[in-house]
Specification:
With about 130 residues, this protein is mostly helical. It is built from five helices and no strands.
């Protein structure tokens, strides 16, 4: 086999391997965001645990783990601080909404502040 062909084949293999790793990292990130949003007010032990694990994963700093939040963001060229700020702002808004729903006299304000669950999808920006 021609050495040039071997280099081409190896390059294609490495590229497809890298793309597979990136898809896996993106799936891990999407799953954590989904658990964070879906289980923010969970009452059952499983839901509470899933939310807590997701929140701790997002908040963990300087981890050496390959699939840590910061490492995934770095690999996917995303900004972890920006994503974390967005998630925390979303959580705070949900907490305020939950508080208002518990106070019937504030229902008129609730209509303008209601936040709905919207799944987050990430895509790599070129």
């Amino acid at each position: 086999m021609d050495p040039a062909n071997e280099e081409i084949i190896e390059g294609v293999y490495k590229k497809s391997l890298r793309e597979g790793e990136e898809r896996l990292m993106l799936a891990v990130l999407e799953s954590a965001v989904e658990d964070f949003q879906k289980y923010v007010f969970a009452r059952n032990p499983r839901g509470k645990r899933l939310f807590q694990q997701a929140e701790e994963w997002f908040l963990e700093k300087d981890s050496d783990e390959l699939f840590s939040f910061e490492n995934i963001c770095e690999s996917l060229q995303l900004h972890p601080k920006y994503i974390l700020q967005g998630l925390m702002a979303w959580k705070e808004a949900k907490l305020k909404t939950q508080f208002l729903e518990g106070h019937p006299q504030d229902r008129t304000k609730l209509a303008s502040t209601r936040i709905r669950y919207h799944p987050v999808r990430f895509s790599k920006v070129a």
